[in-house]
């Protein structure tokens, strides 16, 4: 004869089937409870994605020079994301591979293009010139935990020299 335990304040018998297994609802609740920032592994994955995104952003900023095509910068950013993510979380945990890579393609939006310009290699004709306002955005994910970065930079031949305001004001007046 099957006997159920007496209900006590601390016992949760509603989540145990007669055969002793947990029901699906309890499993989902446990997964949700662990899927927040109190879980150190999740924080580490967010931090890893953010660190990779920041390092790729820095490399793209350094590559912005007059004469460089936007499509080349987009490809470089995506390649750097793939290269960096291939170096982390390579050991299968519980027999499960950790997915990682680009969460948002590298976008290089120039001047009047406000955002999300990620051209195909066959169609790009945007070449940077001195004084162009370049908006960069990209995203990286590690196991679905995403780090996204964006930055606006002025294209100059000499990265140490600050951009002059006059060309930027003229460009703004034209658009």
TrEMBL record:
Location of the region described as Disordered in the Swiss-Prot/TrEMBL record: 1-36
InterPro entries: Creatinase/aminopeptidase-like, PA2G4/ARX1, Pept_M24
Bilayer-crossing regions: none
Biased composition (Acidic residues): 7-34
Domain Peptidase M24 stretches: 45-156
Superkingdom field: Eukaryota
Family annotation (Pfam families): Peptidase_M24
Family the UniProt entry places it in: Belongs to the peptidase M24 family.
Protein name: Peptidase M24 domain-containing protein
Annotated organism of origin: Emiliania huxleyi (strain CCMP1516)
């Amino acid at each position: 004869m099957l006997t159920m335990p007496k209900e006590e304040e601390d016992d949760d018998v509603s989540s145990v089937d007669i055969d002793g297994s947990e029901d699906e609802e309890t499993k989902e609740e446990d997964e949700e409870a662990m899927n927040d920032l109190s879980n150190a592994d999740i924080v580490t994955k967010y931090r890893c994605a953010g660190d990779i995104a920041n390092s790729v952003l820095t490399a793209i900023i350094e590559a912005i020079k007059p004469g460089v095509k936007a499509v080349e910068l987009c490809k470089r950013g995506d390649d750097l994301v793939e290269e960096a993510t291939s170096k982390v979380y390579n050991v299968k945990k519980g027999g499960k591979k950790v997915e990682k890579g680009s969460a948002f393609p590298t976008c290089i939006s120039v001047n009047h293009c406000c955002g999300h310009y990620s051209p195909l290699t066959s169609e790009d004709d945007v070449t940077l010139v001195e004084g162009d306002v370049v908006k960069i955005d990209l995203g990286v994910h590690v196991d679905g935990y995403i780090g996204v970065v964006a930055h606006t930079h002025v294209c100059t031949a000499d990265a140490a020299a600050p951009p002059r305001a006059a060309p930027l004001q003229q460009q703004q007046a034209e658009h």
